[in-house]
Fold:
Amino acid sequence: MADALFQISEPGESRPKHACRTRAVGIDLGTTNSLIAIVDGGKPAALTDAQGEAIVPSVVHYAGDGGVVVGAEARDRLAPEFPRDTIASVKRFMGRGRRDAEATRKLTPYQFAPGADGEGVVRFAVAGGRAVTPLEVSAEILKVLRARAEEALGGPLQGAVITVPAYFDDGQRQATRDAGRLAGLEVLRLLNEPTAAALAYGLDKQAEGTFAVFDLGGGTFDVSILKLENGVFEVKATGGDSALGGDDFDRAIAELLLARAGMAEPADARTIRHFLDAARASKERLTSETETAIDVAKAPGQTARVRLSRDEMEALVAPVLQRCAAPLRQAMKDAGVEPGHLSGVILVGGATRMPLVRRFVEQWFGQPPLADIDPDQVVALGAAIQADMLAGGAGRDDVLLLDVVPLSLGLETMGGVAEKLIHRNTTVPCGAKQTFTTFADNQTGFDLHVVQGERELVGECRSLARFTLKGIPPMPAGMARLEVTFMVDADGILRVSAREETTGKEAAIEVKPSYGLTDDEVERMILDSFAHAEDDVKARLLAEQRVEADGIVAAARAAMRDAPELLEGGEREAIDGALAAVESARAGADHLAIRDAIEALDHASKPFATRRMNKALEHGFRGRNVDAVDAKLGGR
Amino acid sequence: MICWSCQKNAGAGAFCTACGALQPPDDAQDLFAVLGVPARFGVDLAAAETAYKDLSRQVHPDRFATGDPRARRASLARTVQLNQAWRTIKDPVRRAEYLLARAGIDIAGKQPTPGSEEKRTVEVGAPPAFLLEILELNDELAVARRAGDEVKVAFMAEEMRARAQASMTTIAAGLDSGVRAQLEEAARSLMALRYYQRFIDEATRNVSESGPHRTGGGGGAG
Structure:
């Protein structure tokens, strides 16, 4: 019956009638890693690169020549060398101001561009004299994901669902949606990460009941309590900390590693990046091992071996993890649920792989968490399901997502008190109205300050925007009736409008977001990106090819140095010639020339590489994966 | 109503009777009518919830994500109204407030409900003796809390819950009586209930801070 209604209710809509799949994607834009997924044949699946890798590390490198490199290459090769120009964990800066904790902490490898007055949005000072906003950095990651999907689908996308932490405030959501637009995506919806996970899990396992989603990622912690019943995914309450995650564990571990290496607090970005990476590596190893030793560089050419046991690491991490307790308690209380009455606890996010985190969850909820889904992929899969539904994919008309506002929204009133118009955990979309009046005769303007948070005083809440209402007709004080309307849409994003009731005149609104970019600024960025779209693509391809060239040149040189006895007559000359050709192409600006030179080098060195591999196999690498051996030899 | 899509008479429902396009809501519509349940305190919550979810499935923005912008606006406005209706009706305190505002009884310090402004409203305030008693109880609670006397705090919270329960009973009986004097009695009880509620929140906030396995009281009143 509902189906029939929909068919006649959307006459102009180009809804694919028998398509087995839509062209809408789900994107998990994570702090550490990002993924893109699509529903194909009724099942969601992550899209992979040529090597079968689904994960794109959320790391963006800005090269001096204007090129941009995103992903594993940026993380593994470029970040250690160019820490200031290689932005990791950009999500922690989304919708944040210059004075926020994230931009002022000690162990940061980044340099921030000075602002006119120290206020406004954070900007990273990167190579080439550029200053980029977190929104632009995120857009670079999204562009790579978009390209991957367009290649897989062989054409443009219909739209995308991008996930955000449930606890993201309005500014962080706006920034994420604008990043999507800047990347050329039609953002169908912002979906809360725990809700996405519950959707993927619930549909896959046919789960019913009340569940908690415990989502601890690289930079954010979310907890959502959901009721799953008859295809309805109803968020009862959500809580979290949008600045708590695996990165904070890394920082705590890095401080200990520095102390053990006998180093004072370092100021240079390379050392900070190096120790943060070493901390992450130790943390990951200690997931399966009980003790690890890691070599850290103290100074050029000088390394120190630092030992770390799992117990020691857990002692460092436990106080940080303990910060999850208060949001957990609050969410359970808001939902009116006792921990023992939950049907299950779903784990999401890479940090939940840590044995300590699992023990914490089990202890807190009094039951072992459900670990039969991949915590790295489940969010992207849920987003893909939602995208498919939004784009009119078949057979999901019974599913209904009811999500909530994570933090109360209000206005500043007299005395700096925050008056809440919309309370946290209100189901979205939702709206509220409030009437104000003028306090001076012939007052024609009115300032409004929009805040988000649970505290009583405006100073302790997050400032979202300041509005100036103009064009109020002159009348005696107290006569004007200004009706201010708050409307939160299904993305959890707030819109404010105002009307003078006695005259019915819409008041003009001038928006000044506290920590974001104005619509005009974002619009300008998008127009700029259209103008430079082709340049951008070329610059990216060029940067990627250069990185590739550097890698293969270094590997070929090392191989010739290590095994000169395997070179046959004339081979060294041929390889040297090909190497020179790669280097000369690399100096140019034509990415195709570099690619061709790399292929020529590959071809020239192939017999040599094959001999090296055979030799190595003879020397007892037998039985091991040939690819691994190949990688070890630096061959291709 | 003239349908935005086919320009014919759309009828009274959510969807145009001629072409099926989703129509914007009537903002002045009674929230009980939005869910199609009788406007009374003793509402059938299960029926209201079923109606809420069935209607949400039909009009939710997720169903119109790629539709005509006018249909999308209608969907957003419809869903805002539906959510407002269910949020008001499912919670006994908000439900009571709404029913009182509908009957033209306003509680001091409460924003007038849109739509009720035209009616003459009677304002019900708190008697000074009541305020004084609450003030003293709050002081007592603060003292017990500072002294770390958890037993006393728990006892006081329990006592307050009993009072809240009694208020709720008065409210329930008064609201569906249709008798003016009883309605005003319900309004006074509702006003008192707000103070009790704040007291309970204050008392349980501390209890829940003391350990991760306790999450405070057993939910809201009623």
Notes: The CA atoms of residues 104 and 121 of chain B lie 5 Å apart.
